[in-house]
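Exercise 7.
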Amino acid sequence: MKSKPDIYHEKQSKQLCALHTLNNLFQKPDTFTKTLLDDLCIQLTPNSWINPHRSFFGLGNYDVNVVMAAIQLMDCEMVWWDKRRRITPQDVNSAIGLILNLPSPSRVGSLLFPFRTKHWLAIRQFDSVYYNLDSKLSEPESIGDIQQLIEHLTRHLNEEDCELFLVNSTKPCTLAVAELM
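Solution. The predicted structure, written as tokens, is:
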């Protein structure tokens, strides 16, 4: 029986799921930090007292623009998946990883609010097996092979307000991407 690969997995803290998703995707602690993501927010909207790219309270809750800008720092791009298209193995095989943005109940402790927020999570392949690296999980969760991944993604994409992004390298082989292989 094949042993489980050594997978880096950050767990949820505050509203920093985008930060955890990025570090889980690139498999290194502190590849990205809250300070760096906050700086990206300011670069995206300078001279704004209230920044539209993160939580007003400074707890995280970063939007897609911040995640895309962070991924570009790694010589990669984040490509939005058109949910009207069927996912094929070829679509996924060219990606270094996947990111899902899912609706999530809004709560503080046990108090549940009547509105929903969005949650980021990464999916990566290790030794021909795809893993869900959701920071809300206690450990990475095996999804399975490419066919099981496609079924998993299709189920999520049929949900309202779920978005899929493919993360691709923009250069033939950067140091960051080479370390992922």
